[in-house]
Amino acid sequence: MTALNELAELSRYYGSNPDYVLAGGGNTSYKDEEHLYIKASGTFMADIEEDDFVQMNRSRLDAIWEKTYPPDPEQREAAVKQDLLAARAPGSQSKRPSVETLLHSLLPHRFVLHTHPALVNGLACSKDGEKAFHRLFPEGAVWVPVVNPGYTLAKTIKDAVDTHCEECQENVEIIILQNHGLVVGADTREGLDALHERVMQTIDSALLRQPDLTEVPIDERTESEWATAIRRAMCAENQAIHILPSSNREILRMAGDEKQITPVSSAFTPDHIVYSGHRPLYVQDGPEKLPALLAEYCSREGSDPRIIIVKDAGFFACGNTKREAELARILFLDTIKIAVYAESFGGSRFMPPEHIRFILEWEAEAFRKTRT
Fold first, then answer.
1. What's the Cα-to-Cα distance from 332 to each of 12, 63, 255, rounded to whole Å?
2. Nearest one of 41, 38, 45 to 17, comparing CA atoms
3. Cα–Cα distance between 211 and 247 in angstroms, integer?
4. Residue 335: what pLDDT?
5. Of 27, 113, 131, 246, which sits most exposed with the smallest number of CB within 10 A?
């Protein structure tokens, strides 16, 4: 088996497991002496093939760290993007390298795996997460505070890794990114699997409880009334809307009032913003109140909600296509799981508003969204 074939195989393994990766999230890479092979932007790990990786020149990637870029964020990201494109090896010019390429290039390991497990994000998206992280992972691990994606994130990780290696005289093999996910690196597939599993088991052992996502069917009349009200309130002329109702024991515990719904009232990670929206709409009154509430939401947030939570009923995932609605439903279920896991580490900690705005406006995330 070639290294690239092994990379594709491990990518499909992790990408097809919803406990590790959802939708277009996550990333994998492999290094040899000259090149880095990384998942192309917009490609799903679950069905990736060898031809879906971008071959990058490692010396050109290393040269990026020696350059001085403009202080303006937009100009800086545009310049880095051009340097990343220029680092593609012959035969890969038609593929777009992942926005996380620099993150993968700075680690020395042959294999690097980046996943977004709800279990890990229960720690990474919690108020006391960093404190718990240092207790649970005292060696070979780095915590990176929430940072905008792209060059800024990669540079922050590089500085944190360099500092840790210098101060602790040890390599970094585990990185937990606040409000984002997990990165692990190893020189073999076996080592990578063992390391990823160790992180999962370590966090699992610290949990106070597991989420109860046992489905609770929404009353047929209630479902029909709300679906009709949402469709009428959200649909412009000749525009279709797809609505997927969902309910479980956990969301029913949370949907009792505005205080109880707080743990799922905003976005935990960039993926949640992209696929299920940056803020759900919570409705305590009957369907007749929905038009006014939607108008107020759109005026305040600048878009329709992807998720509408209805008191004592459940939630409705909305999208312009069935696929959009299903991804919104899946990512909001992930939000619920993270909120429950975060209870063990001081409670939910959402992405800061300025970082949410950055993701909403970021061109690279918009590109990824169009590939779903």
1. 23, 40, 14
2. 45
3. 13
4. 98
5. 131
Using CA atoms of 82, 49, 102, 171 in order, give the dihedral in degrees to the nearest 10: -170
- Which one, of 312, 329, 304, lies nearest residue 243 by Cα? 329
In angstroms and rounded to an integer, the radius of gyration of the C-alpha atoms of the chain is 21
pLDDT tens for each residue of 223-252? 999 999 999 888 654 467 899 999 999 999
Q: Parallel, antiparallel, or unpaired for β 181-186 and 307-310?
A: unpaired
CA distance to 35, 42, 76, 98, per residue, from 48 (Å): 19, 11, 30, 14
Name residue, tokens 């489905």.
215
Mean of all residue pLDDT scores within the chain: 92
- Residue 82 tokens, joined: 């051009």
pTM (2 decimals)? 0.93
Inter-residue contact 304 to 298 (CB < 8 Å): yes
Structure tokens at 252: 């029913």
Which residue in 253, 249, 255 sits closest to 311, CA to CA?
255
Would you state the pLDDT for residue 150?
A: 85
The strand ranges marked E within 202-329 are: 242-246, 281-283, 307-310, 314-319
Burial of residue 116 (number of CB atoms within 10 Å: 0-12, 13-18, 19+): buried
How many alpha carbons lie under 13 Å from residue 182 in its C-beta half-sphere?
Answer: 29
Chain centroid to Cα 296, Å, comes to 28
**C-alpha 1: how far from chain center:** 31
